[in-house]
Design goal:
Largest sheet: 5 strands, mixed
Oligomer: single chain
Helix content: 40-55%
Distance between the termini: 95 Å
Order of helices and strands: HHHHHHHHHHHHHEEEEEEHHEEEEE
Structural class: alpha+beta
Number of helices: 15
Number of strands: 11
Strand content: 15-25%
Radius of gyration: 28 Å
Amino acid sequence: MRARAREPGGGAPASGAVTPRLALVAVLLALGGCAGYSDSFDPIAASLAEQRYDRALEALERRPPARRDQVLYLLDRGMLLRMNRDFAGSNQALEAAQARIAELYGKSVSEESLAFVINDATRSYVGEEHEQVLMHLYKALNYLDLGARDEARVEALQVDVRLREFGEKVGYAEDAFARYLTGIIYEDRGEWSDAMIAYRKAYDGYRKYRADYAVDIPQFLKQDLLRLASRQGLRQELARYQKEFALDRWMSLDELRAQGELIFILHAGLAPIKREHAVTLPDPQSGHLVRISLPYYESRPADVARARLTVGGAEVATALVEDVEAIARKSLAAKMPAISARAAARAVVKSQLARAAREGGRGGGDRDNALAAIVLGLGVEVASLLTERADTRGWLTLPHDIQLARLPLPPGSHKIKVDLLDRNDQVVAVREYADVVIRRGRKTFISQHWISPRPYTWRTP
């Protein structure tokens, strides 16, 4: 009696157990087949290469993001709005990204569990450390373009807060250009002590940049340190800078403030894009196939190496102040041990799941159940392979690098000619700005994004 009672009762639960597992396999397969955020960026990149920032924005807005990619969408939207010179709209998008990042810092346990079983890309993206700092930097630049200098100062303070938060993190402890821009903002406001502190931090940052990214201390910053150290009466510090920089002449603060100053910032090319490198091999213990997928960066090098500004008889070239690609690569390299360890642990878990699913129906004498378990095990194994994907997400509209030039000019209206040069100093393109107003004792900011590989001349009205 018990044997007969067990057969119908045993068969049904076994079949019932297989059904939800098969449903899980279907979910895993669906997740594995989903394209990553960066996989569909090509139409946007093509429009950017044609300097059609409006079309790039339209292409982005045609593809609503998954909720886990919302921060990325807002960051890219903010940058594309900026390229379209909608600085207020850009800051609205970046503010929304900032708010969403704050919400996500308390990550849910279920999201972490899903990432452990499926892949890292199932987690909500909060931005790399350097991306979060650059988010505040671009908000500050937007405010400067809007003439809202008090708001730009607030973002400068946020940069300092963010960098202190990240100060102990491996791979990203400082952002020299963010510090430098902060110093420029303070100096423009006449806050000499704060400007000097920021310039010192930029100086320390660039000394690290020289070792980590082969980016030297910009000549403009050397002049700033000498000027402010002299203004603040820091004689020993001034003497140290003079000796280190081998400079004994610079424009004093009074001389500079009797004029105005043009600050030109070039955002060249596009930051590297993450791709996936995957290896599939048999697990020696279980015999099941396992897959390890890791991210790597693919370069999108800029065709412009520097810019040359000509104003009347004055000429100045830009200096590299931020190598975004180098920073991104170093950040990823610092995180690769942890990424690799998670991928290896996930492969073990997936192999165990496939083995458990395949063996779950064995031993009960029910051929149908055993066959279903074998099919289920195979399904889990296939799903495990398909769902193992590297997290290739990143802020794709960041520039490859950022360059800066500072040029003192007499007050009045000026015509600015900008020659964009390649690595052989050949002109790639020319940009002309008419009626740029320079005010006595103030700084005028101009930003230029450049991505297109095709040389031609274009002008602003």
